[in-house]
Amino acid sequence: MESTMNPDGASDRPTVTDAGAALLVPRWKPAPPPQWGPAANVPAVGRRRLSPKIVLAVAVPVVLLAVAGTVVAVTRPDLPRQKVLDTAALQRQVLTVLRTDYQLNADTVACPVDQPVIEGHRFTCTAEVDGATVTTWVTVRSTGQLEVARPR
Fold first, then answer.
1. Is residue 17, in this structure, part of any structural domain at all?
2. What is the C-alpha to C-alpha distance for residues 49 and 53, in angstroms, rounded to an integer?
3. How distant, in Å, are the alpha carbons of 40, 41, 42, 85, 102 from that of 33?
4. What tens digit of pLDDT does each residue of 105-142 get?
């Protein structure tokens, strides 16, 4: 029997082991993976695995922001809230100014709720003076004091 060689230089003959069984020797090397298209080890259907570095790069800042937000919310619960005027105290103060400073016979005062304590902020309040409804401007000053204009 004549021995032939396959393209990679190996013999075409089967190799015989001590037990007498013949082992098949491949005649050529397996083909390389394709250059285009999906790789052989990636399933055609399914999701790609994310790199652990990408997962850490996204997860660590998200966790840190959540922890920082929780710490701020627990230690400074008043931080996100804006300071506002106490509506009941505001209405009493406007009524007092109308009665004492402007010498008006004012019965009731109604002011909008949740007015911010910001210098220069203006808003109107309505009052009952001698049975008629009048409007007065209220301005917040830098010292936190209120300026009440003469009603119209």
1. no
2. 12
3. 7, 10, 12, 74, 95
4. 999 999 999 898 889 999 999 999 999 999 999 999 88
CA-CA distances (angstroms) from residue 35 to 39, 46, 97?
8, 21, 87
Amino acid at 118: I
Q: Given its phi and psi angles, is residue 137 left (phi above 0), alpha (psi -120 to 50 degrees) or beta?
A: beta
Q: What is the mean pLDDT of the chain?
A: 80
Within a domain: residue 114?
A: yes
Q: What are phi and psi of 12, to 5 degrees?
A: -80, -15
Residue 98 lies in a domain: yes
Residue 101 lies in a domain: yes
Question: In total, how many domains does the chain have?
Answer: 2
- The Cβ-side half-sphere exposure at 50, using a 13 Å CA radius, reads 8
What are the C-alpha distances in Å from 149 to residues 3, 80, 123, 126, 146? 117, 32, 11, 12, 10
pTM above 0.85, yes or no: no
User: Are both 61 and 99 inside the same structural domain?
Assistant: no
Q: 72: domain range?
A: 51-81
